[in-house]
Specification:
The complex is a heterodimer of chains A (365) and B (420).
Chain A lengths: L2 H18 L2 H27 L4 H32 L6 H22 L1 H4 L1 H28 L9 H21 L4 E2 L9 E4 L2 E4 H23 L1 H11 L1 H6 L4 H27 L1 E2 L5 H14 L4 H23 L11 H15 L6 H8 L1
Antiparallel strand pairs in A: 1-4, 2-3
Helix pairs in contact in A: 2-13, 3-8, 3-9, 3-11, 3-12, 3-13, 4-6, 4-7, 4-11, 4-12, 6-11, 8-9, 8-11, 9-11, 12-13, 12-14, 13-14
Chain B lengths: L4 H19 L8 E3 L2 E3 L3 E4 L5 E7 L6 H17 L3 E2 L2 E9 L4 H12 L4 E5 L4 H13 L3 E4 L19 E3 L4 H16 L3 E6 L3 H16 L3 E2 L3 E2 L8 H8 L5 E4 L3 H11 L9 E4 L6 H7 L7 E5 L10 H12 L8 H18 L1 E2 L5 E4 H9 L2 E4 L2 E4 L11 E5 L15 E4 L1
Parallel strand pairs in B: 4-6, 4-7, 7-8, 8-9, 10-11, 10-12, 10-13, 13-14, 14-15
Antiparallel strand pairs in B: 1-2, 3-17, 5-6, 15-20, 16-17, 18-19, 20-21
Helix pairs in contact in B: 1-3, 2-10, 2-11, 3-4, 5-6, 8-9, 11-12
Classes of the chains: A mainly alpha (365), B alpha/beta (420).
Chain lengths: 365, 420
């Protein structure tokens, strides 16, 4: 084949490509390029500046893992409910708040009586148990009152009901316990550190990450290796077919809310351990972030929610310093949410179903 | 495709509310004559025997409730001292919650401006609320007397005409920032400082004034940091600050964020020798509740509100406050609010005219000018308003928290005065 023919074909392909190119394509490629420049340029600039030592970077990673673990636990509630009901449970962050409040009252009582200092492990377990019971009960009540009547309704009614439930919980707790910020007990072991290969790690962070890993592992085991877990996955795949196969969909939904509520209860206590405050509006921001994490991982996918949460936490913590310090941007930490949601957008541009969502779709196919 | 419906829904709802409220703004006031009173921007008619409505807007919900509630109570004590009467009319006091933020301030001001019976407005406690609210009120011809909103821009000589109706009984932070820099450098012995703000006009401007004065004294001002009022995870920003190893962090932020900064700073390696210093927004029992035991030893720079520094009538005013509300003052700006209410009463009585029909007529511009001409010995100290609206005299102080029990909150005891 002559060179002239090849050249003509090449020109023809280029022309077809240019004809197909839309403004949106150009904008998306521009966005990708911009993000790439910021990430690579900022990282190189930051590393050249050498403002942070290894200890600081490890601290950022540890903070990211800690908050990411909490996001992941909350994200599981979103993703599981979405899986079985195709409903975004916007009250889930507030269900976490109810658990944190319950834990606060128990922990505060233990602190005043000296029980928390004398028996910290036992006291924490009781605090968590109460938090789980309260958040699970409220999750089930919300499901029964706000979601079940809309289970077969199409349109936006379930979504509006979920938002309404969120506001209702926030304002109820505000009315019951006031609008001021309440301080979680702060014990000396909260400040304790563990020497890990010469690096001092706060024990509270290890406790939070450890609890999150254990609870998520248990949840993963339930979903993947139990009869009820199989039923949950079956309902997630096809609710009608599952019902025809004899699965009690109602029972599955209730069990899903129970699991989600329990995870939210544990997350609420862990969140309060780290940030040491409870507040009626405290569930909103982590709720939105956790929803973002669930979307990032692939909504409806349990491992996706876990990975999405950790990923988001790490990016939020490490990102501002790593990407923006190099450009000399003042107060880069203020751009934390920009990084988190740019990450979300970028992942959705490249993988519209999230990090793990596509695999689920293929498996279903 | 997955979206973020709740964030979007709340954002759209807020945008819609603000748009609707902006649309409902009163039209610019115009010259009018009524009942024999002529005024450049309008005349208010109060029928005989009808109440005179005075508005108020403060933060009366959320973590900073004490700041606004204390001011509101100060104004109520002043009205009670006048037997709730002004110019022969009973006082109708209408209060809105501004949430200590711009959106709340805009909403509160819009509601007050839309009420044609409002004669004058007191408040707010937060500069974030005053910044959007004062122009809305003045556009409706309503004079606004701030009680704890201290951002310098609100009464700056080059302020926009939109703020011509705003005056205040709290000193500008130009004095506070200068005094704070001096205390940090000379008394605390800090040679390097990180200013940290939350983006609010109060915190941002106060941090900037302090930084300028600290540098002039010879101190090293390290890069300014910022957090959001709703941030909870302060570890990354504190870790970043720790790399600078500053002697002090100057953080005039509000309760929720300050509590997180204070508690989490104890966990950050490199900040062991760094002193954290707060501002006037933290003078509240809620701050003790939010911080817990870490509060002991924490210091805040604040105006001197000791009985010696206040006016002669201050102890009597505190006694009335305590009797009326069943507890001692819950923050430090009740005296300023009392004086703001006195300015309002005196100005109304000065310009109110009885018309031929027996009704009372008040010129809006005349009322503004009368308020700006105020001069008397207030409970918070001498009151004399300047042409740009500054009426108070500043005296610096520094307080230190000595107990983590919120029930022990009492200015002068917990926190106790350590300077002057």
């Amino acid at each position: 084949m002559s060179e002239a023919v090849l050249a003509v074909r090449s020109q023809s392909r280029l022309r077809r490509f240019l004809l197909r190119l839309t403004f949106v394509d150009v904008a998306l490629w521009g966005l990708r390029a911009l993000v790439l420049v910021v990430v690579i340029g900022g990282t190189i600039g930051t590393l050249i500046k050498s403002r942070y030592g290894v200890t600081q970077w490890l601290d950022f990673v540890l903070f990211g893992l800690t908050i990411g673990s909490i996001y992941a636990q909350v994200a599981l509630g979103y993703t599981m409910v979405y899986g079985v009901l195709r409903l975004i449970n916007f009250a889930h962050g507030d269900i976490m708040m109810t658990g944190a409040f319950a834990g606060y009252f128990v922990a505060n009582g233990f602190d005043r009586s000296g029980f928390l200092a004398a028996n910290p492990v036992f006291a924490i377990l009781i605090t968590m148990a109460v938090s789980v019971v309260v958040s699970t009960s409220i999750a089930l009540i919300v499901e029964r009152i706000a979601y079940r009547p809309f289970r077969h309704v199409r349109g936006f009614a379930p979504l509006i009901s979920a938002i309404g439930a969120s506001f209702f919980l926030e304002q109820t707790f505000r009315g019951l316990f006031g609008s001021s910020v309440k301080s979680y007990p702060d014990l000396h072991w909260h400040q304790a550190q563990l020497n890990l290969f010469g690096y001092m790690v706060p024990k509270i962070d290890l406790l939070v990450i450890g609890c999150a890993v254990v609870s998520m592992s248990i949840l993963y085991g339930i979903v993947n290796h139990t009869k009820m877990g199989t039923a949950i996955r079956a309902v997630s795949e096809d609710k009608e077919a599952a019902a025809l196969m004899g699965i009690d969909v109602n029972k599955v939904v209730i069990f899903t809310f129970t699991l989600g509520g329990a995870m939210a209860g544990i997350a609420g206590v862990l969140y309060a351990f780290v940030f040491k405050q409870v507040y009626f509006f405290m569930g909103f921001t982590p709720g939105v972030k956790a929803f973002g994490a669930a979307v990032l991982g692939g909504i409806g996918n349990v491992p996706g929610a876990m990975v999405g949460g950790i990923f988001l936490g790490l990016f939020e913590s490490v990102g501002p310093s790593l990407f923006f310090d190099g450009f000399g941007i003042a107060a880069p930490y203020q751009l934390r949410d920009l990084i988190a949601f740019t990450l979300l957008i970028m992942v959705l541009i490249f993988r519209p179903n999230g990090l793990f969502g596509e695999r689920l779709v293929k498996e279903r196919a | 495709m997955i979206r973020l419906p709740i964030a979007a829904a709340r954002s759209f709802a807020l945008t819609g509310l603000l748009a609707a409220s902006s649309a409902a703004l009163s039209p610019p006031a115009i010259a009018a004559t009524a009942g024999g009173v002529t005024d450049d921007i309008g005349v208010i008619r109060i029928p005989k025997g009808a109440p005179i409505t005075i508005g108020g807007y403060w933060v009366i919900s959320g973590p900073d409730t004490a700041l606004g509630t204390d001011s509101m109570r100060g104004a109520k004590v002043a009205f009670a001292d006048q037997k709730n009467m002004v110019a022969g009319h009973p006082i109708n006091f209408v209060v809105e919650d501004d949430g200590c933020n711009a959106e709340g301030g805009q909403t509160a001001a819009t509601k007050l401006a839309a009420n044609p019976s409002i004669v004058l407005v007191l408040g707010p406690a937060c500069s974030s609320a005053a910044t959007p609210a004062a122009p809305i009120l003045w556009k409706a011809g309503i004079t606004d007397i701030g009680t704890a909103s201290s951002a310098p821009s609100l009464t700056a000589p080059d302020r926009k005409p939109d703020y011509d109706g705003f005056l205040r009984t709290i000193p500008s932070d130009l004095g506070q920032g200068k005094a704070d820099a001096s205390w940090l450098y000379t008394k605390l012995g800090a040679k390097s400082v990180v200013p940290l703000h939350d983006g609010s006009p109060y915190a941002q401007q106060l941090a900037a004034v302090m930084a300028k004065n600290f540098a002039e004294l010879g101190g090293k001002v390290l890069p300014t940091e910022a957090v959001a009022p709703t941030d909870v995870d302060m570890h990354p920003v504190l870790t970043r600050i720790a790399t600078e190893k500053p002697d002090a962090i100057y953080m005039p932020v509000f309760v929720a964020a300050a509590a997180q900064l204070l508690r989490q700073s104890k966990e950050i390696p490199g900040l062991e020798k760094t002193t954290l210093v707060g501002g006037g927004s933290l003078m509240a029992p809620e701050f003790i509740s939010a911080v817990g035991p870490s509060i002991v030893g924490f210091r805040i720079c604040y105006p001197d509100v000791s009985p010696d520094a206040m006016g002669k009538a201050y102890p009597q005013m505190v006694a009335e406050y305590t009797k009326m509300f069943g507890e001692a003052p819950i923050s430090g700006y009740h005296g300023n609010a009392y004086d703001a209410a006195v300015i309002a009463i005196k100005a109304i009585e000065k310009v109110a005219k009885t018309g031929p029909d027996g009704a009372t007529y008040i010129g809006r511009k005349a009322l503004r000018d009368a308020a700006f001409a105020s001069a008397f010995d207030g409970v918070s100290g001498p009151i004399k308003c300047g042409e740009h609206g500054d009426c108070a005299t500043f005296k610096p102080a520094v307080y230190e928290f000595v107990s983590s029990d919120p029930s022990t909150f009492k200015i002068g005891t917990n926190p106790k005065a350590i300077f002057p």
